[in-house]
Amino acid sequence: MTKIVVDGTEVDVPAEYTLLQACEAAGAEIPRFCFHERLSIAGNCRMCLVELKGAPKPVASCAYAVKDCRPGPNGEPPEVLTRSGTTKKAREGVMEFLLINHPLDCPICDQGGHCDLQDQAMAYGVDSTRYGENKRAVEEKYIGPLVRTAMNRCIHCTRCVRFLAEVAGVPDLGAIGRGEDMEITSYLESAMGSELQGNVADLCPVGALVHKPQSYEVRPWELSKTESVDVMDAVGCAIRVDAKGREVIQIEPRINEAVNEEWISDKTRHAVDGLRLQRLDRPYLRENGRLRPASWGEAFAAIAARVKGTDPKRIGAIVGDLAGVEETFALKSLMTALGVTNLDCRQAGERLDPAWGRASYTLGATIPGIEDADAILLVGTNPRLEASLLNVRIRKRWRMAPLAVGLIGEAVDLTYPHTYLGAGPDTLAEIAAGRHSFAEVLKAASRPLVIVGMGALARPDGATILSAAATLARDIGAVTTEWNGFGVLQTAAARVGALDLGFVPGEGGLDLAAMTGAGALDVLFNLGADEVEIAPGAFVIYQGTHGDRGATRADVVLPGAAYTEKCATFVNLEGRVQMTNRAGFPPGDAREDWAILRALSDVLGHRLPFDSLVALRRTLYGAHPHFAALDAVAPSDGVATVATLAGRGGTPDRAAFVSAVPDFYLTNAIARASRVLAECSSLARVRGLEAAE
Amino acid sequence: MANRRLAPAAEQPAAFAFSSENAEWAKGQIEKYPEGRQASAVIPLLWKAQEQNGGWLPQKAIEAVADELGMPHIRVLEVATFYTMFALEPVGRFWIQLCGTVPCDSCGARELKDYLHQRLGAPGHVSADGNFSWLEVECLGACCNAPMAQINQDYYEDLTPDLLGALMDDLAAGRPVKIGSQVGRTSSEPKGGADTLTDASLFDGSRVGAWRQRFEDKKAEESSEPSGKAEAASSEQRAATDPKPARPDAGRAVSGQSTDAPAQRAAAGQTPVKSGDQTDAADRTESTVRPGEPTPPPVDTVARAEAAGAEAGTQSDLPRNEPPPQPVASGASEGTDEAKAQPAKKPEPTRAAPKTEGN
């Protein structure tokens, strides 16, 4: 620790701190444009200049280390002045230079109201300019469907360039030319290839890069901001849902160091227009082969007529990818009351069973725990598409100090160097038998991490592969009492919560594949499962938000609330319990899902014992106490689970693993309804075809 | 300088690959850098690609270099657009890069620019005969011979529109041309010949480096150990008697002595550095030596002795584990001796006060 005096306040900071960090530790605010905590230091905007006693001129505090400061003549701690005349003059000078070429188009700029340059010009600038020449003009650039450019406004902080190169690992942007002619662009104006590209617009301190889909729609002060959780994948990124009136306008990341730091994927951000399109806003009934609008009463009556008198063995219930814990719990309670044991939440057909222990379907090492791993084996997964922010964390770990990452499955670009080991279970068996060179790497690692993805589990021999992976994890010492280096990478936000609730076939119950088969059931209750094909025959009740595949196959459609319209609990792939918040109301007659089930239970004669969300949660927490611990990962017994799994054994099929997420942008009903994501999807497809050529 | 963009698609060749000879050369360049640092070879490779492609860089060459070095395309484009030495559009057989920065400008680059405008048209276009294209560039570092232009690989200096026109005619006609100054001066010496550093005695070791002789004499007196030290001594003696000339010998005459260089003082039998100068140069407010603490030994003596030995082609055998001998005649050691002799010269807070005012 080193002492330093900031504006007369002496603070004790680590020697490797920069002056900017030291000033912040002392409570002094330093303006900055190019500096960002999670990116490398560029030191090119000069806005963070401060006066350092003894230095001949102001120093850029973001790039000047505390340990590089010289002590005073008698050994006094170095002294920084952030409010002195020199500092003020330096800031005014820098601001004046930045504004030389920055257009005065704040009234038509989308950044207006949350613009760093605007705010800092107000706080640290002067009121007028002395520059009488023409401002420079820069051509607009096309850099993709998600980010609109207004390059006249660019101040060349290079945050976007550094983000793509460092965090996203897809270095598509660069600065061409030099001096006054420097321009930020992609190579020959091709679209950026990162699934995290929306973040560059967030990072942009001015209005040069703004979100294209929300162009010219809102001002930040018109928005009501609701802190929530994302459900587009199982990572559970912290988001802020911005709504104008009842309409959700944009989704922005929120800082959660344990999950997404401060990034979100493009799917999370731009599924917003999917929340408006294709929505179910009233119940529907199928009559003469066509769905017709109906009232809630009609719909419930039709359901009651079919359910009453049907053998519970001929009734089933499935849960989709976007259902919260509350409605899953309500559905399970209702089905239990009806005596139904045909329950399943494993929509992708993955061979997982909560009976094996919680560690068998979560990532016990947790996302921040990835930073402690020293070797990673990915089995049947492409984390870049299945859990983008988890992939960012692996990349972050790799950037701290390169580690060995092995991949079994489809050969893909993970954005960091990795060893491609093989395509299927054979490779896994080879490593387990120690015949593969990567086995040595894993054995030598002190904290190896084995991550099994849906590509390996969502197939008939999934349980065998899980067992083989668990055996490997046990043999390489990945699972100890201190380190749980065996985990499953879920792809659906609802899955862990539903598995926690035990929404799987009861005794003698049918699983999802059997239920959706022809002639298996008379009544199937479908809570938002859009990725399954249900054979003709059964009477299907679909409760969901979008007119997608599930609603098309339904005989009764009950309109529910999307994740931005309800307060629901989701458990992410680590087993972290998080809660969404309501940013708006569901459209039309649509209702919150638990309330629909509560109302339906009354009609079916098995009234559920809760009349409010609070009462529901009280019952839920009584039965499953771990849901009450928000934002926490309940510890799971990895050692016992791995022992259980390893003991199951079996011989897997030889077929190669197939990615569980063939199209990143279209994984659920909301994303499929989004026009923006459809454009991204077609661009990605073209890029994939070009890469294949 | 205008925005630099790649040439229009119509002018771009369909493909680019290094010739086998150049590919071999490129491999040699890449091998200069350690594993993982291959990107360091980007500029030599671009340079070679431009040379192979008739003086300009097509898009495919940028991509080929990027792929060769495992760099993203945009990173190589950044480099290629940064340096004006990489032409992104086709150039003439003779590519004229005219310096337009201040020294050249004040010496008449503007007339040259007008001339080129008049003769070749706007910059960046190849003349109808394919011989010339021109561009105004930033300083090329030959300001002393301003105004100047670089044509292909060579500098042509002291230009006037007439000289440039004649030069271009000669180049176009394939006649031999003179590289460098076009008015007949030698490198960058003053117009009309050298007028400083013309004294031959400056370059024969009798003045510059004379202190070495004095140092040698003193040392020979003091030291009577013949064995190991003798070699070092002899090497140093050789260095003294046959010093490297401080300036290339151009046979110029010295007109007068206006400087007060240490070598001159030494030759005149004075101390090389005036003791007053030395104490003035020291900033006592920033001294790392605390009053009362012993003065650290001059640690650079070994390095200096080694440097002298290296100059003479031998290794010094000065022991590294004991304090090095103090060369008596050198300025630095005299200063130290003086400081030792006058312990009163400690930092004086009262006198140092005005210097800390700005801090």
From TrEMBL, chain A:
Its EC number is 7.1.1.-. Residues 86-125 form the 4Fe-4S His(Cys)3-ligated-type domain. Residues 223-279 form the 4Fe-4S Mo/W bis-MGD-type domain. SMART domains: NADH-G_4Fe-4S_3. Its cofactor is [2Fe-2S] cluster; [4Fe-4S] cluster. Gene3D superfamilies: 3.10.20.740, 3.30.200.210, 3.40.50.740. Belongs to the complex I 75 kDa subunit family. NDH-1 shuttles electrons from NADH, via FMN and iron-sulfur (Fe-S) centers, to quinones in the respiratory chain. Couples the redox reaction to proton translocation (for every two electrons transferred, four hydrogen ions are translocated across the cytoplasmic membrane), and thus conserves the redox energy in a proton gradient. This is NADH-quinone oxidoreductase. It comes from Methylobacterium adhaesivum.
From TrEMBL, chain B:
The gene is nuoE. Signal peptide: none annotated. Residues 179-201, 214-359 are annotated as: Disordered. InterPro entries: NuoE-like, NuoE_dom, NuoE_N, Thioredoxin-like_sf. Residues 239-250, 337-349 have a biased composition (Basic and acidic residues). Its cofactor is [2Fe-2S] cluster. Its EC number is 1.6.5.9. Belongs to the complex I 24 kDa subunit family. Keywords: 2Fe-2S, Iron, Iron-sulfur, Metal-binding, Oxidoreductase. Pfam families: 2Fe-2S_thioredx. Residues 304-313 have a biased composition (Low complexity). GO terms for molecular function: NADH dehydrogenase (quinone) (non-electrogenic) activity. This is NADH-quinone oxidoreductase subunit NuoE. Gene3D superfamilies: Glutaredoxin, NADH-quinone oxidoreductase subunit E. It comes from Methylobacterium adhaesivum.
